[in-house]
Amino acid sequence: DGSILPASQNSILHWVAHLGGRIEPKTIKAYLTHLRSMHTDIDLPFTATESPLVQRVIRGIKRYHGERGRNPKQPITLSVLTKLITHLRPATVPGDCDILAAACTTYAGFLRCGEFTVHNSEKFNPSINLTAGCLDLNPRKQPGWNPSHPLFRNAAGTSLDCSSFIKRIRQALQSAGFNQSAFSGHSFHHGAATSAFAAGFTEYEIQLLGRWRSNAYKLYIEIDEARRLHISSQLHWAHPHESLSFEPPALHSLPFMA
């Protein structure tokens, strides 16, 4: 009908059909949720997400195209981190000193990549991004130190961006003998949770350290094969009280009947 908002059911159907095969059905649903939120913000009616026809189209997309298989990335645990940092050259390769410091910091702090780097298309903002002033340093021992400068910088001296960080980490992983495609920037967050669980931290403590608000942290806790075998073996030990009668306790007080 030529109008843009509120979005009509017909336009939503065309849009959903256009997205089919390009993105996951669950992502299409997320887009519709955001669109409904936008309508709510400007006090416009929007019921297309509840439309049986729209839901049927989404189900049809899911059946026709299927869902993409998950490609989970490997965690960067302490052992992996120890190996990869030996292949960084902070003394000879420009930028590697900051890469090494960033790698250790993100692991120790359960940081996500976006929490200590800038996005590739964004400029450094001292009010949002981490600055050198976040650390308690003695300016006399740090020539050129400026509290408003980026905490981590690349070889060019500008704020460390996410793609440069991940690229250099993958190169170091490859040199250390790992498959670099099996890791991502999120592998540090994943690995910190896995290592904390292996070290005996409780799930609540891991959730607290990783700043998870939901139970999503459970997806990042991995139990290695040795631990699984140990847990399984506990089920096969002989019963420690073999001499005890397995007669139900309630029958002990009853008189014996021949």
Automatic annotation (TrEMBL):
It comes from the Eukaryota. GO terms for molecular function: DNA binding. The keyword DNA-binding applies. InterPro entries: DNA_brk_join_enz, Integrase-like_cat_sf, Integrase_recombinase_N, Phage_Integrase-like_Recomb. One of its GO terms (biological process) is DNA recombination. Keywords: DNA recombination, DNA-binding. The keyword DNA-binding applies. Gene3D superfamilies: 1.10.150.130, Intergrase catalytic core (1.10.443.10). This is Integrase. It comes from Lentinula detonsa.
